[in-house]
Design goal:
This protein is an alpha/beta fold. Helix content is 48%, strand content 21%. α4 runs parallel beside α6. It binds ligand C2E and magnesium ion (MG) (3 copies). One magnesium ion binds next to loops.
């Protein structure tokens, strides 16, 4: 971890260095203290069951509320955390925060399962894998209420060890989902072996579905393939009603996207549930 930070340090003396790298270096150091300083927060985005037309789950998405730079999206700092050995700390924080939120919501009459994102770095770390199982048990999270989203890349990197870790989690009852499906070049042979329950079709295939016939063919074939393998399918990046209806007609199980809701802060979810016709959950408070 230290050696990597030093490498970046050294790079700063390169005359071709740009402002971007300098900023990256600052972020690496700042990220270390971000958790201690309570600068990380989770936003939650609803996942809709298309048969019931109701929200059944939310995905936890981390944001960094940087005191000077404002909100930094995960696309910016997750890759840095991955390269500098900080995913272990970050993912542990995310999981604990999500489980606490799960209990808090339940006490308010909000019964939703939660999906959290896990990185390739976590899958490689057998200590993390065991920690996760212990934590879920200690914090009394019903395993059936927790879904782990793992990107297709993470699995492709080292399929054998990924399949081993994932099987371990699946055997304990955790739900597993392959995120950004279609972008990670996994082979059909690997998909067959993956001990997962669900795939999430990447939003690049969904966003322009209505105007793109190739995307329709790809999504339709993916749905058929997944269903034949006994997997459930989530479409991410649903931005309009037409796409939602097309997906319903084509037997997609779940949908997520800006058409339903953007990711929102934890304390705004109750209000969203109260006002949305996509919700049968009516929270006790408010
Ligand atoms: P993801 O898991 O595929 O999450 C979906 C991303 O797509 C989110 O961006 C979400 O805001 C965005 N999105 C959702 N619906 C729509 C839509 O209809 N249109 C468009 N254009 N975008 C939509 P976000 O929150 O910036 O997260 C980006 C990625 O960062 C995530 O992709 C995930 O890979 C990673 N990430 C976020 N939180 C965590 C975390 O706690 N741990 C790990 N390991 N990765 C995380
Ligand atoms: Mg995800
Ligand atoms: Mg995704
Ligand atoms: Mg994504």
């Amino acid at each position: 971890q230290h050696a990597k930070a030093n490498k970046l340090d050294f790079v700063i003396y390169d005359p071709k260095i740009d402002q971007h790298t300098l900023e990256t270096f600052e972020l690496v150091n700042a990220l270390t203290s971000a958790i201690e300083n309570n600068e990380l927060v989770l936003f939650y985005q609803p996942k809709l069951c298309l048969e019931k037309k109701k929200v059944v789950q939310v995905e936890a998405l981390v944001r960094w509320l940087h005191p000077q730079k404002g909100t930094i999206p995960p696309d910016v700092f997750i890759p840095i955390a991955e390269k500098t050995g900080q995913m272990n700390t970050l993912s542990r924080w995310v999981i604990i925060a999500a489980i606490k939120q799960y209990h808090k919501w339940r006490s308010e009459g909000i019964e939703l399962s939660i999906a959290v994102n896990i990185s390739a770095e976590n899958l490689k770390d057998s200590e993390f894998c065991q920690w996760l199982l212990n934590t879920v048990e200690q914090l009394k999270m019903p395993v059936s209420a927790l879904t782990l989203e793992i990107t297709e890349d993470a699995v492709v990197e080292d399929p054998e060890s990924a399949i081993m870790q994932l099987s371990h989690w699946r055997d304990r009852g955790l739900k597993l989902s392959i995120d950004d499906f279609g972008t990670g070049y996994s082979s059909l042979g690997q998909l067959k072996q993956l001990p997962v329950h669900e795939i999430k079709i990447d939003r690049s295939f969904i966003q322009h579905l209505m105007s793109n016939d190739e995307d329709k063919i790809i999504v339709n074939s993916t749905l058929e393939l997944a269903h034949n393998l006994g997997l459930s399918v989530v479409a991410e990046g649903v931005e309009n009603l037409e796409t939602l209806e097309w997906l319903t007609e084509h037997n997609c199980e779940m949908a997520q996207g800006f058409y339903l809701s953007r990711p929102i802060p934890e304390d705004e979810l109750a209000q969203w549930l109260l006002s949305s016709h996509f919700s049968y959950i009516k929270p006790k408070i408010h």
